[in-house]
Design a protein that fits this description.
With 362 residues, the chain is of the alpha+beta class. It has 3 domains: 119 residues, 2-Layer Sandwich (Nucleotidyltransferase, domain 5); 49 residues; 94 residues, no CATH class. It is built from 8 helices and 12 strands. A 5-stranded mixed beta sheet has the order 3-2-1-4-5. A hairpin with a 7-residue loop joins β7 and β8. This is Retrovirus-related Pol polyprotein from transposon TNT 1-94. It holds the Pfam family SH3_retrovirus. One of its GO terms (biological process) is DNA integration. Keywords: Hydrolase, Metal-binding.
């Protein structure tokens, strides 16, 4: 006997909080900070606006729903009328059912084997089409100005008492606090997490190293059954594509002095520039003189390069101060050119002449 096809489409609720979809996912293979291995979602059917709460255990679902209800009802001045879920044990507890009855919230449980009736919650983490849920919920378009690349480095302003101490620390962005404006940062030097608004993010050229392919399997509360549809194997990205990410990172050296000063390896570049200046001073590369009348000085620029070893790891940071010879104009800034390097062909000719006439080379 095969399962009957699901036909028809349920009507969307007329107003905010008329119907709330909920679902629990987990346990995840990797726990979040704090030991959270489950999460529960609540999605408004009318706006598709959703909330996500982390949980250590599935039994925390009741507490998370009470927290969600108090927040959204206070924000919208409306009451939750119905809650739709699957038949998971976390939704069938006596205290959960009694709480819904006391607050006049209709509980709707989907029949076993019909996840499509709770499809909004099942697909909460998928990309939603059409108008943004945020715009329906708040009545205005969302702003992306505060969004940052997770894990990106940032210089965060420090509250220091000594004027000689560093006024910023290089930290990592790890999230957003719910209770206040700002960002969560992790300071690897002090091994602590804190909130701050004053930060300069270094997102340009930053990329995360993805070393493992994790497959998220959502927990099912249905009875086991034989699937009649065509099966498929989970697709894993071939290892060869990892070199695409590697080659994209090889050309991320700073192009200008400004980029070097905002790079995550700022201290290494400063050390490399100091080494270059010390070398030029000890080798007497230049002599300071007055600029001749009518002459135009040639500018200079820094060239930066990370030297890689055989294993692809950075072994050294090089900085070279070079002249901008390309800014000179022929006939205006110079008449002749000179190269101190002889061509191999010229050297062979001279050696041949010396051998023919038995000249001494010294």
């Amino acid at each position: 006997m095969t399962k009957k096809p699901f036909v028809g489409q349920s009507a969307i609720a007329n107003g905010l909080l008329d119907l709330i979809y909920t679902d629990v996912c987990g346990p995840l293979s990797i726990s979040a900070r704090g030991g959270f291995s489950y999460f529960i979602t609540f999605t408004d059917d009318h706006s598709r606006y959703g909330y996500i709460y982390l949980m250590r255990y599935k039994s925390e679902a009741f507490g998370r729903f009470k927290e969600y209800r108090l927040e959204v009802e206070n924000q919208t001045n409306r009451k939750i009328k119905a809650l739709r879920s699957d038949r998971g044990g976390e939704y069938l507890s006596g205290e959960f059912i009694d709480y819904l009855k006391e607050n006049e919230i209709l509980s709707q449980w989907t029949p076993p084997g019909t996840p499509q009736l709770n499809g909004v919650a099942e697909r909460r983490n998928r990309t939603l089409l059409g108008m943004m849920p945020y715009e329906i919920w708040h009545g205005k378009p969302a702003s992306y100005k505060y969004l940052r690349v997770w894990g990106s480095p940032a210089y965060v302003k420090r509250l220091v008492g000594d004027k000689l101490d560093s006024r910023s620390s290089l930290c990592r962005f790890i999230g957003y606090p719910k209770e206040t404006a700002g960002y969560y940062f992790y300071d690897p030097a002090e091994q602590k997490i804190f909130v701050s608004k004053d930060a300069v993010f270094l997102e340009k050229g930053f990329s995360l190293d993805s070393r493992h392919d994790e497959v998220l399997i959502e927990e099912s509360n249905e009875e086991p059954h034989r699937d009649t549809t065509t099966s498929f194997e989970p697709h894993r990205v071939p290892d060869r594509y990892g070199f695409v990410g590697l080659t994209s990172q090889l050309d991320n050296d700073p192009k200008t002095y400004g980029e070097a000063m905002s790079d995550i390896d700022l201290d290494k570049w400063l050390e490399a520039m100091k080494s270059e200046m010390d070398s030029m001073g000890s080798n007497q590369v230049w002599t300071l003189v007055d600029l001749p009348k009518g002459a135009r000085p040639v500018g200079c620029k820094w060239v930066y390069k990370r030297k890689l070893g055989a294993d692809g790891e950075v072994t050294a940071f090089k900085a070279r101060l070079v002249a901008k010879g390309y800014t000179q104009r022929p006939g205006v800034d110079f008449e002749e050119t000179y190269s101190p390097v002889a061509m191999a062909k010229s050297i062979r000719i001279l050696l041949g002449i010396a051998a023919w006439y038995d000249y001494e080379i010294w």
